[in-house]
Fold:
Amino acid sequence: MIREEILLGNGAIALGLVESGCQIVTSYPGTPSSEILPEVVRFVKSEKLDTYVEWSTNEKVALDTAFAASITGKRAACCMKQVGLNVAADSLMSAAYLGTVGGLVIISCDDPGPHSSQTEQDTRFMARLAKVPVLDPSNPQEAREMVGLAMDISEEFRIPVILRPAIRVCHARQNISFGPIKKNDQKASFEKNPQRWAATPRFRLILHGELNKKLKKIGKRFEDLSQYNFHNLESGKRYPLGIIAGGVPYSVIRDFLSEEKRTDIPVLKIGTPYPFPESLAAEFMSACEKVMVIEETDTLIEYLLRDKDKVMGRLSGHVPPEGELVPQVIHKLINNVLEELNLEPFQADDDHEAVQLVKDLQLPVRRPTLCPGCPERSAFFAIRKTRPKAIFTSDIGCYTLGLNLGVVDTCLDMGAAITIAAGFYHSFAQDAIEQPIVATIGDSTFFHAGPVGLLNAVYNGARFILVILDNLTTAMTGMQPTPALGIRADGSKGKAISLERIVAGCGVDFIEVVDPYDIKKTTSLLKKAVKYVKDPKGGIAVIIARHPCVIAYPDEAIPQKKKVTITEDCVECNFCLDRFECPALYHDQELGRVNINREICVDCGVCLQICPKGAIVEA
Amino acid sequence: METINIVLSGLGGQGILFMTRVLAQASLHHGFPVMVAETHGMAQRGGSVISHLRLGEVESSLVRTGTAQFLLSLEENEGYRNLPFLSRGGRMYVNTNSKHFPIEEVKEFLDKREVIYRSIPAGTIAQELGAPRSSNLALLGYFSAFAEGPIGYKDIKTTIDKISPKRLKDINLKVFEAGYKKGKDFRGNFFG
Structure:
């Protein structure tokens, strides 16, 4: 029997990696890419492969590591989210010039929407900037196949290749049949060639020339890659409108056209947006009066098309320049164009009334919030209590949700809690203003990008309180281990890296560890830190607020369950709802006081410490 | 086959992903090609969560508004929020304790569009069985009792048995059965 599974898109990509004989896979977790590496681990175990896998400390480290494997002749891949590729950009730009030996595939997952990212940036432009090929899958099955193609192209042309799945590929699920998986026995060998692998600017010019030649050849190859770049024009026929699409929008449009049984609108699918299959596109354009371009997230295809007068897309205002292109949006956009061109429209949209109804209902917006029992909530509560007037710089992770508690004022990029705090300090200090600043950063984010900023801040004399919210996991992206745990990506034991020692190594002299569930102790430590920051002999104070994540370690996080109840002393001041914002606390209108939602309360008992009226008590 | 579109909604932490997986796996077992779209990341921390499940020969994972034959919601407001997905004559299943479900404005709309709606206090049922986080299975059981979906009680039950983590298997099945029974009883009363 053929093995068939409903795989997550990221699982399909992982399958593609092991099928392609990838020997080294590195990654830093980030939505929507996080599940690729764990799925690789699953297949490595079930197929008894010896693939090396690692959670790298950040994306640049991941890419450098995979690049090294490639130039020993092995097949390698690194996986990240789109903004992770910014971190790895330095490595990417240079690796494009140096080239590869074994296949090197960079999987960078885009997030149109954005659902879980700082930007809607389009990885395809990163590929264009670096001058490396990029493949754009439309669904999980295609993503899996494209991994193999990317690996082959990379190895044949000695160039890194990017696969750009968007979130609707990564987090789609599809039934996938498994093929045979062969072990790749390629051994590592490094042929010294400093003129290439350590090229100086003089040689870089030569390498740039080589890169351009490679791209030309790959461009030719892509013209004939009929599996991923194709159209359905009938020869000799002319069309009033054609559609050019790639990635997720292509699959949406494909479904529409078959549902509506429309054969009058030809479609050109672009699976390899760069290098762009120009002749194929020119052939398609010449058969159509007008061409609508529907791509995510930016305008790469639109820029690369020559005959702009025919194009209806983002540049002409026919497609919105931001936001995800979900089916109902694409449906309306195409209908608008059909109408503009006096062509037969699609079936009318049937959602206006419902959309208006939902609008009129004014449903409460359910914003994401920290989980019941989350130790970060207690840390934030203590911080706000001690330093209500501070500027709160924060970072990327679950704890960005400290926003709801009024304890997050900035969130720029990974590690910026520290660097922004330092920048604020110097800006205010210049005007002789003593501005309190409290920075918060998670443990995994600290490992990713914290130390460099911290040692810079210490070295340059900045002063602020840094609270490292150490919940012993990378929680937001799905509980991947951090270096502090000493557990590696495949579950094996690694060396645990001490946060305290890194902080000390950055030159910090005030380092305290506290359990944030103990709000009183946390508060008094924060007060001590305030003094230290103000002291002429002081500096940056670091508090490590350490308590296990309640989702990753439910038993360890709450070793002693405490059932709480709310007495009639509750005066409905809503202090607990505003300042503590535990989802298990709610205002009970019938009861005329705050009440506890037992469905979600985890009995952590932390709220026993917060009520100004003492109305929250042990049951 | 005609494509079947199912939208599942609720709040992060209610088990939408698991409920979707059960239906998807049961459908595959039944021989349907399966496409799913899931919500991961920040929204899983208590925000609005939605899954799309499409059965049939389709290429894209997202359901277009106005085309879902089924809307299953683990929370009343999230059910309302996703009404635009429901097709004319669709079916809506909601977890709520409210005696006023659906609220007047919604009822009017659903009746006009010939949508059949049903509610069950899935959260309470799960809680009474000592599994407050398993309201998803109670709703699935209830849904399966009406035998309107492409996959029935048996397929769903077998799948829950197969894919539940060991320590949750018994309680999952128990809650599912309780939801199923509630649906059966309702049907019994209804059809006399």
Q: What stands out?
A: Residues 201-223 of chain A form the longest helix (23 residues). Chain A touches chain B through 56 residues (CB under 8 Å).
